[in-house]
Automatic annotation (TrEMBL):
This is Mannosyltransferase. It is found in: Endoplasmic reticulum membrane. It comes from Durio zibethinus. It is a multi-pass membrane protein. It is an enzyme of class 2 (transferase). Belongs to the glycosyltransferase 22 family.
Length: 582
């Protein structure tokens, strides 16, 4: 009997891979997490039950990413002016240009834009003049990329560490506010986030060469600065399969860089590398990103809690539980999660901070938090008695779904608050298509609300131009792409890299405005807005007043209290009143 038991334990049928370092992991995991079962039961489970299936994961992520694509707000004006507007110009030959796209500076890659044009162009043919549908078609494409990459990560975690850990991670990836919003944002940092999920998943699936290739795509096609976050997986992949991983990374990087330079030459009409220019500007002395705002060292900690609530706290505690759960999670899961700490520390040291800069590590927050919650019972088990089922261990097991439920409820509350509080700009601009009786060549004017402009995809064709009006802002604003000066190859003289306003950026004759977008806020002091006496509102939606609303009520949706305690302004679309003829 003893001999037969020994033979079953050493059976190669239970091994997840041919690696000599792997066989102990499923066995030790089932011993600790499923006491009462024999080791052969644990081995049989890992051999026959491969964890969460692809269909379940893809379906869950697909539903939530669809919801994100259709209801997500635009969180950053950079997303509009540096990505949606250049895409609109490539599709429709109109749109706003920022100084980063001036051929003099050439900081932004058109390769990233034309990658999304692959979806935008067919959508523009399919929907003709319905540009809003093209906008959402591109968003659905972003959601599809997110689904594919996150599903790979979840399935990899499930196969290597079990269903429970993968299920927790799947729930957080679906519902955590940070992932919900970042997954369908048109930003290079979001693209690097997709690559981070996919590369990490491939690494856990023992495909190091593919992991390195995907990391190279995330850095070069996405966000070059994210190279720091990809280092742990890349270096570990090289250590596992140096020749294959090195060739994969080198070929992918060389091909993408060469293609990027060719694309930049085509659009900027000069030999340059936007990847190199961006690194030079920000890293090697030319960068003055502090001109666009600075934040304190705790900015990302506060931001992380807002977007992930207790999930973020648990993620930061992963290093603390690692000595106890080392047998389960070291080294591979630790390698996958380590960019969370590296990236958070590095970005916290930078003066200029923005929420989107943390996007690349968002999936790792969910994985780290899931590992901590899954390890609750291990914190109280006797390491010499893995079958210990004392009251405190059983209580810790009960706390796992309680902690997960708390995270998911708070996440939904945060998501609901943001969507309902700040969705007015997208909805108000959609009203324009119903007022084409204003005539071709109408002018839409935007004052202090320029930074919430949702992109030219929401501007109907009958509107001839969108103009900014002076409402006190003294920084440099985007200008329309100038076909006369060369379009994408232009280096307009009104652009500078010092964020200094140009004399030409504002419309001087306000009588030329046909429509006006304005946010009216209730202020106890004189409001610095436009004279609205000559305008009639044709659309008005409530907009959460961040300055006057208490943080605890505006940050999370609490039924009844959210409406009662918060202060709202009105986001208005106005049309000029026609003067009666005498």
């Amino acid at each position: 009997m003893s001999l037969s038991t020994r033979q079953r334990r050493s059976s190669p049928l239970d091994l997840p891979s041919s690696s000599s370092s792997q066989p102990l992991e499923p066995e030790s995991y089932s011993k600790v997490d499923k006491p009462g079962r024999s080791s052969s039961d644990g081995g049989e489970e890992s051999g026959n039950d491969r964890g969460l299936g692809w269909f379940t994961v893809l379906f869950a992520l697909g539903m939530l990413r669809y919801m994100s694509a259709s209801s997500n707000i635009i969180h950053d004006c950079d997303e509009v002016f540096n990505y949606w507007e250049p895409l609109h110009y490539l599709l429709y030959k109109s749109g706003f240009q920022t100084w980063e796209y001036s051929s003099k500076f050439a900081l932004r890659s058109y390769l990233y834009i034309i990658f999304h044009e692959l979806v935008g162009q067919p959508a523009s043919w399919l929907y003709a003049d319905e540009k809003v549908r093209v906008f959402y078609a591109v968003r659905l494409f972003l959601g599809l990329l997110s689904v594919t990459s996150d599903a790979t990560l979840v399935v990899a975690v499930s196969r290597k560490y079990g269903k429970r850990l993968a299920s927790y991670a799947l729930a957080m990836l679906c519902l955590a506010s940070g992932c919900f919003f970042a997954s369908t944002s048109f930003l290079p940092s979001s693209f690097s986030m997709y690559a981070m999920s996919l590369s990490s998943g491939l690494f856990l699936l023992e495909k190091p060469a593919w992991a390195v290739a995907v990391a190279a795509v995330g850095v070069i096609l996405g966000w070059p600065f994210s190279i720091l976050a990809f280092l742990p997986v890349t270096l570990s992949s090289l250590a596992k399969q140096f020749k294959q991983a090195f060739l994969s990374g080198a070929v992918t990087s060389t091909a993408l860089l060469a293609f990027s330079i060719l694309v930049d030459h085509y659009y900027y009409q000069r030999w340059t590398s936007s990847v190199f220019n961006l690194l030079m500007y920000n890293v090697l002395g030319g960068g003055e990103s502090h001109l666009y705002g600075t934040e304190g060292p705790l900015f990302y900690i506060r931001n992380g809690f807002n977007n992930f609530n207790f999930c973020f706290i648990f993620a930061l505690l992963f290093l603390g539980i690692l000595p106890i759960a080392r047998k389960k999670y070291a080294p591979d899961l630790f390698i996958v999660i380590s960019p969370l700490y590296i990236w958070l520390a590095f970005m916290s040291l930078q003066l200029h901070k923005e929420e989107r800069f943390l996007y690349p590590i968002y999936p790792l927050v969910c994985i780290a938090a899931s590992a901590v919650i899954e390890s609750f019972p291990d914190l109280f088990r006797d390491k010499y008695n893995p079958y210990n089922n004392s009251i405190i261990v059983m209580t810790a097991k009960i706390l796992r779904p309680v902690a997960l439920s708390l995270i998911l409820c708070a996440s939904h509350s945060r998501t609901f608050s943001l969507i309902n509080g700040y969705a007015a700009p997208l909805e108000v601009y959609k009203i324009l298509e119903h007022h084409d009786d204003a005539g071709t060549g109408s002018v839409l004017c935007v004052g202090s609300e320029w930074h919430r402009f949702p992109s030219s995809f929401f501007i109907p064709n009958y509107i001839g131009e969108v103009r900014w009006i002076d409402d006190g802002f003294r920084g440099l604003l985007p200008f329309p792409f100038n076909a006369t000066l060369g379009g994408t190859s232009a280096a307009p003289p009104y652009f500078n890299n010092k964020n200094k306003a140009s004399d030409e950026q504002y419309l001087q004759d306000l009588q030329a405005c046909t429509f006006l977008v304005e946010l009216q806020l209730n202020r106890p002091y004189p409001y610095r807005g436009n004279d609205l006496s000559t305008w009639e509102p044709i659309a008005a939606l409530p907009y959460l007043d961040r300055e006057l609303s208490p943080a605890k009520y505006r940050s999370f949706f609490i039924p009844y209290l959210w409406q009662q305690k918060n202060v709202f302004g009105m986001y208005k679309l106005l049309k000029r009143v026609s003067k009666p003829k005498r």
